[in-house]
Amino acid sequence: MSARGLFITMEGGEGVGKSTNLAFLEHILKQGGIDVVTTREPGGTHLGEEVRELLLRVRGEPVNAVAELLLIFAARAQHIDELIEPALAAGKWVLCDRFTDATYAYQSGGRGVARDTVEQLEKLVQGKLRPDYTLLFDAPVEVGMRRARDRGELDRFEQETLKFFERVRQGYLQQAQIDGNRYRLIDAGQSLDDVQKGLAEFGDELLSRWAMVEARQ
Ligand code: Z5A
Fold first, then answer.
1. Is the separation of the CB atoms in 7 and 76 below 8 Å?
2. Nearest-atom index, ligand 1, CA of 137
3. Buried residues in 143-172 as b, exposed as e (16+ CB within 10 A)
């Protein structure tokens, strides 16, 4: 029987390089012989991708912060049940572009929803499921905003203000302090080469630890 897979999440403000580096880490792990599933939030399932479209679309009316929060957790419940848990149980590793740390950072830090409300939904929807590792890509807000804007049209979140993204950044850094062991803080303001050198070391470290776990099975 294979061991339960690892659940690794990539987090950070917009444009910090999560998606680019998720693909890079996936490549390293696959080369190391790991069966990897990549996914994202909101999204990852048909239902989740439909919710993502609802959340990101630019709308004429303001979106209530609790409505936004509940949509995010609705998509997450489906994602866990349909994709994340079955993959982990089958010994696959799941690399996820954003997860609940994003909810603490955006909905609590950014929008001002009480932390306690997010905690309650986290317990309800996830039970004991938490990421094994979280890579937090941190860069000055202007850096990420510039990279996102260089890509063209902005979605509903990307149209937020500098102040909003400053609160999001602080929300993430606060998360990393609360649960320090799980996080790897990555300076995403460095060149992509330097970011990926650090990421390659992290990948090698995980692969050696995994080899020990497998040897014990
Ligand atoms: N959201 C939420 O509010 N609550 C939640 O619980 C969850 C999500 C789960 C969609 O997420 C929105 O959902 C998100 C928050 C909300 N909105 N925001 N903002 P998303 O992950 O799709 O959105 P995103 O942050 O806008 O993703 P992104 O813009 O695709 O950013 P990224 O993945 O971090 O960056 P990237 O695409 O890898 O890189 C951006 C560009 O920079 C690209 O051209 C790269 O080649 C370049 N890049 C990357 N790294 C470097 C370095 N180091 N140097 C130079 N250039 C670089």
1. no
2. 34
3. bbbebbeeeeeeeebbebeeebbbbbbebb
Across the beta sheet with 133-138, the strand order is 36-40, 93-97, 7-12, 133-138, 183-187
Distance CA(217)–CA(209), nearest Å, equals 13
For residue 168, the model assigns a pLDDT of 98
Q: Which atom of ligand 1 lies nearest, measured to the CA of 100?
A: 6
pLDDT confidence of residue 1 = 61
Q: 3-class SS at 157?
A: coil
Per-residue CA distances from 159 to 83, 187, 190, 210 (Å) = 30, 24, 25, 41
Query: Lowest mean pLDDT: which of 58-67, 129-138, 206-215?
Result: 206-215
- Closest-CA residue, ligand 1 atom 4, reads 103
Residue 183 burial (CB < 10 Å; 0-12/13-18/19+)? Answer: buried
Rounded Cα distance, 26 and 163, in Å: 33
